[in-house]
Amino acid sequence: DSPDAIFPSRRYAKISTQALPERFAVVSRVKKEIFSVGSRGESIRSAVLPSVQVNVPEGAVASGTKMSLQVQPVDENFNNLEEWVTVSPVVTLEPADIIFKKPVTVTIPCPVYSGQSNPDIQPSLRLLCCFPKEAKAGSAQTPAYQWQDITGNTPLTVIGANASFTIDRPARYWLIETRNPDNVTADARLIYRKLAAVPYLAKFVVFAKLSADGTEARLRVFCITDDKMDKTLEGQTGFVEIARSRDVEVHDGRPIHIRCLGNLAPVQRDPLHLNFFSFRENRLSVTVR
User: Which tens digit of pLDDT belongs to each residue from 32-82?
Assistant: First the structure.
């Protein structure tokens, strides 16, 4: 696709076509950098995020050892989504089947939260890692990963905006600053799933229709991933568009929670939410008074 089709940043691809295939697929993965490390050691710096460094000392590996480094950055706004936790980039070292003969030092940027912090709550910086869990013999499943909190037996050294620690084998490493350290591994699974979810740009459009006596109104909330606002049935059945959002990021298969504020109150007291699924109609109906 042409550069003009990338909007508003290179995280999104806009596809224009005159054909109508059954599906489109944009396939990508976290960039893998390959390094050849000799017996004299090596200082590895990520081209994706230069503040991520791996210092392999002399004698830690055999000559000609191939190592790979993957860095999954965290969007600058990601840590605003959950006030109770902040996360660093995810750093993966491979191959996982080697053991370092000497400790290897890894440096990762500390989690950064750009919102307002609460001075009365002191978060705890935790170091998590996961090793690939081998699939059962004969199974077509890919290896699964299980996060472990290794802060207790892996000392962290924080200097400025970075944290360093030593490891004895490659794995996937992640720094999480949390106010609930006892539940950090469970939180990590949920946050990592969100971090790896496919993002889409969408608009929220709200239609309304007053009841005959004017005491209630029916609202229809749409999450629309194209520009065709006029194709909805509501525009032909007496509903009026009353609000439209700017482009916002939503994630496939994730719930979107909605609240009514001000002088509007839903008739039903159940929590309002809709699950977003790409290339489907995403609609929520609610009656308010």
Answer: 999 999 999 999 999 999 999 999 999 999 999 999 999 998 876 676 545
What is the DSSP code (8-state) at residue 137? Answer: T
What dihedral angle (degrees, nearest 10) is formed by the CA atoms of 95, 100, 104, 106?
A: 20
Report the relative pairing of strands 53-56 and 132-133 from DSSP bridges: unpaired
265 secondary structure, DSSP code: -
Nearest Cα residue to 129 out of 76, 169, 159, 100: 169
Our CA angle for 195, 196, 202, nearest 5°, is 80
pLDDT tens digits for range 251-283: 888 888 888 888 888 888 778 888 888 878 888
Q: How many C-alpha atoms does 123 have within 13 Å on its Cβ side?
A: 18
User: For residue 10, how many C-alpha atoms fall within 13 Å in the half-sphere facing its CB?
Assistant: 2
Query: Using CA atoms, how far apart are residues 51 and 109, in angstroms rounded to an integer?
Result: 6
For the four alpha carbons of 185, 108, 80 and 220, in that order, the dihedral sign comes to negative
Q: How far apart are CA 171 and CA 91, in angstroms?
A: 8
* pLDDT band with cut points at 50, 70 and 90 for residue 137: very low
CB 148 within 8 A of CB 193: no
Q: Which domains does the chain have, with CATH numbers?
A: 32-135+144-196 (2.60.220.30), 199-288 (2.60.40.2660)
Tell me what pLDDT residue 190 has. 83
